[in-house]
Structures are given as structure tokens and as C-alpha cells.
Write a sequence for this structure.
């Protein structure tokens, strides 16, 4: 039996957690290296897209906090969710996002963090019961369709792979680098499709486990090949 950490968390503790996280994230986002795409200091399209990204992440986070007061969560999953949320904010709005504009290595690091670190960590934190409780019935259709699709790991792997290769074609790669809005769309494609992929792989039942392993192998093979192509293209 696990001990839920929420459902008994007071409003003051939630507020204290929010203030601590907010102060730390703000300090990191306000470094000179982070100012180009930072919603606090950037201008024009970069600022608007940054603000929209920050708003969506904050809404997702607040829905979890709201739902967590109603539906208990395992201690490690609860704190794992918050740690992953902080990592997501820093990856999308921190100094790395600015470096990704001029550095291919930083750009690829950002993509890898979104797809190979953040997405599976969020799946492992199992936030859906809390998100569902926080959102009520209003947003239920948003995840019902994708979760049905996640019952077919290979289909999800094909979709995820298609988006990866699409955004690494030279034209679309540069489009994302040069346009803040398309950059945000690219990140959304990677994070959402990777989340669905890892859900299909990590949450597969016994009947779907062989297909999940095949989907994982397929993804490792084609992303490894893409990495080799990009490496030699830079040579």
C-alpha cells in the first residue's frame, strides 16, 4: 500500500510549493542567456509564443494541483510530476531554448529532453487521475481519443516517427529555428507524440507487450539512423 501525499495537502503547503518553484524558475529564466525566447524579457512573436507556452504549462500544472487535492497520488509520482514540470519549463523557456537557435547540438539536446526524458517521466508519474479530477468532465474528450490510439503501440510509433522526421527535414527545421510560432508548434508535436508513444510502451498490457517492444525497437532504429544522418550532414 502506498501512502498518498495529496488529498490531505493544505492550501498553505500548495501555495508555499508554488512560491518556491516560481522563485527558482524565475531566477533561471531571467539570466542573460535566456532572454531571447523568455516570455518575461523577449519581444514580438517570441514573447507572445513564450507567454502562450507558459500559460499552457501553468494551466496543466494547476489542474494537477487541483485534482491532487481530490485524488491521492503516490509520494514519488507526486514529486516526480513537479520535478518534471520544472524541467519542462527550463527546457522550453530557459537558456537552452535560446542556444537552440544558433547551435545544432543545443537544438538536438532540447529535442532529446522533450522526447526521451520529459515525456516518459510524465507518463511514469501517472498524472491522469489528478488531471481528470482537476478538469472535471470538460476536458475528458481531449485524452479519450489519444488513449484509445495508445492501445496500438505500432500506430503510435509510426505517428511519432513521422513527426520526428518531418521536423528534421531541412526546410521545416529552419522554419522552426527562424519562426517562434513554428518553434512552439514543433515542441508541441514532439512532446505530445512522445507522451503518447511512451504511454503506449510503458503502460502496455500483457497482450500488447510484444507490440510495445517492437514499437520501441523501431523507434530506436530510425532515430539512431536520423542521428547518424544529422551528424554526417554537419561534417
Amino acid at each position: 500500500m502506498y501512502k498518498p501525499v495529496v488529498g490531505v495537502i493544505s492550501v498553505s503547503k500548495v501555495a508555499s510549493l508554488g512560491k518556491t518553484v516560481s522563485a527558482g524558475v524565475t531566477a533561471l529564466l531571467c539570466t542573460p542567456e535566456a532572454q531571447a525566447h523568455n516570455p518575461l524579457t523577449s519581444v514580438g512573436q517570441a514573447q507572445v509564443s513564450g507567454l502562450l507556452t507558459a500559460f499552457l504549462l501553468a494551466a496543466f500544472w494547476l489542474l494537477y494541483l487541483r485534482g491532487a487535492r481530490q485524488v491521492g497520488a503516490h509520494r514519488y509520482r507526486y514529486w516526480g510530476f513537479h520535478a518534471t514540470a520544472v524541467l519542462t519549463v527550463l527546457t522550453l523557456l530557459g537558456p537552452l531554448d535560446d542556444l537552440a537557435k544558433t547551435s545544432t547540438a543545443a537544438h538536438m539536446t532540447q529535442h532529446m529532453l522533450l522526447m526521451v526524458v520529459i515525456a516518459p517521466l510524465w507518463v511514469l508519474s501517472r498524472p491522469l487521475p489528478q488531471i481528470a479530477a482537476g478538469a472535471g468532465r470538460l476536458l475528458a474528450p481531449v485524452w479519450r481519443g489519444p488513449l484509445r490510439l495508445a492501445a496500438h503501440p505500432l500506430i503510435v510509433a509510426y505517428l511519432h516517427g513521422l513527426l520526428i522526421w518531418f521536423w528534421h527535414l531541412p526546410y521545416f527545421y529552419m522554419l522552426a529555428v527562424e519562426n517562434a510560432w513554428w518553434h512552439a508548434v514543433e515542441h508541441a508535436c514532439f512532446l505530445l507524440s512522445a507522451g503518447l508513444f511512451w504511454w503506449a510502451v510503458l503502460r502496455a498490457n500483457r497482450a500488447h507487450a510484444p507490440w510495445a517492444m517492437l514499437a520501441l525497437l523501431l523507434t530506436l532504429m530510425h532515430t539512431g539512423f536520423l542521428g547518424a544522418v544529422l551528424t554526417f550532414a554537419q561534417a
